[in-house]
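Q: I'm building a small set of examples for a reading group on sequence design. Run inverse folding on the following structure and report the sequence directly after it, with nothing in between.
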């Protein structure tokens, strides 16, 4: 039996019996009972019924303070009135849910992003962060006309073959630190996928530079999370060095800010590091709780997908096409309801004092948790930037994926299962995201719950 499952108090399974039944029903018609593998945890996920502000309520009526926040997307909490009003107003004024044509909110959001992110000259919308990174890679390969990309070990950019490589590799397969192997993270992938993706060591500038110089004739782009997994920051010298090297070698630098956009500062990690990537992928917070993605970047790169450049694959018949624009399409790209929700979210975050107060509350929670764990003699640190962090049980410095192999994840998960019983929600082992809806009272209750959970685990 999974030891983390044993860690749950004996009556917790009774408290979530409705979730167990709902999950079993779902398993009959949905593989594994979940619509995304990340939603699953043993013995079964908790099935939610409704939410408000910082709180979730499951199908059994149990209440939780939510720190998962849909993996960080809900920065204003659940059901924020400003977002709901914007959505209702958009639907009422437009009289439809989607046009399939250009509309004014596309320009309005694009201009907002260009104003916030100095690295962006132009913007295209997608329906997820995954689609945004996929488009970024296609653009970079068209721009540089080289067959391969490079990504960093431990970084996640979406569930497609080009980047589903060495996200969580077994150390027996991962190779040397200075020259990591490309390791497939899913069945159904081909050797060609692995060959086309070069793996780099995060936060190791010397080794990264050596690989990029050796393979510069093959690599179109480097893509990275400036803050790995949303909580392990890049060293400032590493980031500046990576920007210098990619500029020198003519390699497109792509920032995946799906997690960090609007969560570290409004301008994301690139604002904190004072670095302008060539392309930036956004998602999560940008949609205000609706599915969204966006890609922004340099004019000369972004213009490759302009339909004014040439024919499109969906334009058939007539004169023979002699030049094709880079293909990018999607029926729901720039969905008006989604953009209305996203604009309302950003507008609220831009109000004076909102981000500073959110950052204050995040620091209060981090310091309070560190004190509780240290009182119990546990080696623990909260690692992160801005409004995202994770609880790491180690005294060692955490700088990359391999640093996490020494972390005490077993104790962390046991504590997390106890926290579920105590009404604190995040997927066991996952990072914490804060919202403007979290109150000081929420923070105090969370710190107290950790105190109780740690005692339960240590006294077991």
């Amino acid at each position: 039996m999974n030891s983390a499952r044993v860690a749950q108090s004996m009556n917790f399974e009774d408290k979530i019996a409705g979730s167990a039944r709902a999950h079993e029903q779902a398993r009959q018609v949905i593989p594994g009972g979940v619509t995304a593998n990340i939603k699953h945890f043993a013995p079964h996920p908790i099935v939610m019924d409704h939410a408000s502000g910082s709180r979730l309520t499951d199908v059994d009526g149990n209440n939780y303070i939510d720190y998962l926040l849909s993996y960080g997307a809900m920065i204003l909490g659940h059901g924020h009135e400003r977002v709901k009003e914007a959505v209702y107003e958009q639907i009422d004024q437009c009289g439809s849910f989607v046009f399939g044509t250009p509309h004014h909110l596309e320009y309005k959001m694009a201009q907002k992003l260009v104003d916030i992110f100095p690295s962006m000259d132009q913007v295209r919308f997608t329906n997820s962060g995954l689609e945004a990174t996929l488009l970024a890679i296609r653009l970079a390969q068209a721009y540089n006309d080289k067959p391969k990309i490079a990504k960093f070990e431990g970084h996640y950019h979406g569930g497609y073959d080009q980047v589903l490589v060495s996200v969580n590799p077994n150390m027996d397969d991962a190779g040397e630190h200075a020259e990591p192997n490309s390791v497939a993270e899913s069945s159904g992938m081909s050797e060609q996928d692995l060959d086309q993706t070069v793996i780099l060591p995060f936060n190791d500038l010397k080794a990264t530079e050596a690989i990029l110089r050796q393979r510069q004739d093959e690599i179109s782009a480097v893509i990275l999370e400036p803050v790995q997994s949303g909580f392990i920051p890049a060293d400032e010298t590493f980031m500046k060095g990576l920007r210098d090297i990619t500029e020198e070698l003519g390699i497109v630098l792509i920032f995946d800010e799906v997690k960090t956009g609007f969560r570290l500062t409004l301008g994301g990690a690139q604002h904190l590091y004072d670095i302008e990537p060539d392309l930036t992928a956004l998602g999560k917070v940008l949609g205000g709780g609706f599915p969204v993605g966006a890609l922004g970047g340099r004019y000369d790169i972004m213009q490759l997908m302009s339909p004014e450049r040439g024919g499109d694959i969906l334009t058939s018949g007539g004169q023979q096409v002699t030049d094709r624009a880079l293909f990018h399409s999607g029926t729901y790209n720039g969905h008006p309801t989604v953009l209305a929700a996203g604009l309302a979210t950003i507008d609220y975050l831009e109000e004076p004092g909102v981000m500073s107060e959110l950052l204050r509350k995040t620091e209060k929670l981090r310091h309070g948790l560190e004190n509780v764990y240290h009182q119990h003699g546990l080696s623990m640190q909260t690692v992160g930037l801005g409004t995202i962090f994770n609880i790491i049980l180690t005294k060692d410095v955490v700088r990359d994926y391999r640093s996490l192999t020494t972390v005490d994840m077993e104790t962390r998960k046991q504590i997390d299962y106890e926290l579920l019983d105590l009404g604190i929600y995040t997927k066991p082992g996952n990072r914490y995201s804060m919202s403007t809806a979290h109150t000081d009272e929420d923070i105090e209750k969370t710190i107290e719950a950790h105190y109780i959970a740690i005692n339960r685990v240590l006294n077991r």
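Residues 354-375 form the longest helix (22 residues).
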